[in-house]
């Protein structure tokens, strides 16, 4: 006969699948001992650039019990975003995760539904949902939950589908059955390190965020430093190079989430059309899109830098 722990664990995983999540893994809410010195060293070496928020809540990033008092379990969830269509070849490039609607809202709604189902089925369970917007080391938790391993490019990778996944968490005060971590399958491969246009992957598993094209085109609010001139590889928002060259991504399957379907303009536009983009068109094309974060002025700054 199944114990309550087993029953609840199965219920959560089944519901996650019903809500459209690709995978669900669960780990015990404890202090992330291995990650602590790595995070400290990364911050000390200023690899976060102007992302000063990374310096905040150091302890909370490493201990989920400081985010949810009495937390027992971290439920990690993956949602595939690999698109079925790619952009026009003669275009400035946008990271695939930003092709559709803003994932923060899409995933948060699914997570809130999941927590609601848990409360309905199991009773009063206290918890919080996290989608890339709070001090949670999501990839570390996903790896701990057996959903993949953290590769040399710091992305979570699965042997069967690669790395084009959003990672989210539900931290709850309910004890569950815990999954075990999987093994690392990067081996001696250095494809991501060799291909990075700005050499942001300074050594295996160490990514200098302040040199990453995603940081330069999204997070950086000032002018892009001239040292990166000619090195952005036509990326106007984000960058997928280290994922595109990863051998495991040859197994990537297109997502089935309707809200991630790209607008035809985003797919069809060529460089000239992006050059002529107006503020009005920007708002139309990127309505509900994560690209809105960079604003019209930020996107045009990136495009003009690409022409240097």
TrEMBL record:
Positions bound to cob(II)alamin: 61, 132, 153, 156, 214, 239-240
Any one GO MF annotation of this record: epoxyqueuosine reductase activity
Cofactor note (record): Binds 2 [4Fe-4S] clusters per monomer.
Pfam families: Fer4_16, QueG_DUF1730
Top-level EC class: oxidoreductase
Binding of [4Fe-4S] cluster 1, residues: 186, 189, 192, 246
Pathway entry: tRNA modification; tRNA-queuosine biosynthesis
InterPro entries: 4Fe4S_Fe-S-bd (IPR017896), 4Fe4S_Fe_S_CS (IPR017900), QueG (IPR004453), QueG_DUF1730 (IPR013542)
Magnesium found in the keyword field: no
Residue ranges annotated for the 4Fe-4S ferredoxin-type domain, each copy included: 177-206
Task of the protein: Catalyzes the conversion of epoxyqueuosine (oQ) to queuosine (Q), which is a hypermodified base found in the wobble positions of tRNA(Asp), tRNA(Asn), tRNA(His) and tRNA(Tyr).
Name by which UniProt lists this protein: Epoxyqueuosine reductase
Encoding gene, per UniProt annotation: queG
């Amino acid at each position: 006969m199944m114990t309550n722990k087993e029953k609840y664990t199965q219920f959560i995983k089944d519901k996650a699948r019903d809500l459209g999540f690709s995978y669900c893994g669960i780990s015990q809410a404890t202090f992330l001992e291995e990650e602590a010195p790595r995070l400290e060293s990364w911050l000390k070496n200023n690899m976060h650039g102007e992302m000063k928020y990374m310096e905040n809540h150091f302890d909370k990033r490493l201990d989920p019990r400081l985010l949810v008092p009495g937390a027992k379990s971290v439920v990690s969830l993956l949602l595939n975003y690999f698109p079925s269509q790619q952009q026009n070849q003669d275009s400035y490039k946008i990271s695939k995760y930003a092709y559709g609607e803003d994932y923060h809202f899409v995933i948060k709604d699914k997570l809130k539904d999941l927590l609601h189902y848990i409360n309905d089925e199991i009773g009063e369970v206290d918890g919080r949902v996290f989608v890339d917007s709070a001090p949670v080391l999501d990839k570390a938790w996903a790896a701990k939950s057996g959903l993949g391993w953290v590769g040399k490019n710091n992305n979570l990778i699965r042997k069967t589908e690669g790395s084009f996944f959003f990672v989210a968490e539900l931290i709850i005060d309910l004890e569950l059955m815990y999954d075990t971590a999987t093994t690392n399958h990067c081996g001696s491969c250095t494809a991501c390190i060799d291909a990075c246009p700005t050499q942001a992957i300074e050594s295996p598993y160490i990514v200098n965020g302040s040199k990453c094209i995603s940081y330069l085109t999204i997070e950086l609010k000032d002018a892009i430093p001239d040292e990166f001139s000619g090195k952005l590889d036509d990326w106007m928002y984000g960058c997928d190079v280290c994922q595109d060259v990863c051998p495991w991504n040859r197994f990537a399957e297109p997502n089935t989430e309707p809200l991630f379907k790209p607008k035809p303009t985003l797919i069809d536009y060529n460089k000239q059309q992006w050059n002529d983009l107006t503020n009005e068109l920007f708002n139309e094309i990127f309505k509900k899109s994560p690209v809105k974060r960079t604003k019209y002025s930020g996107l045009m700054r990136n495009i003009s830098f690409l022409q240097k």
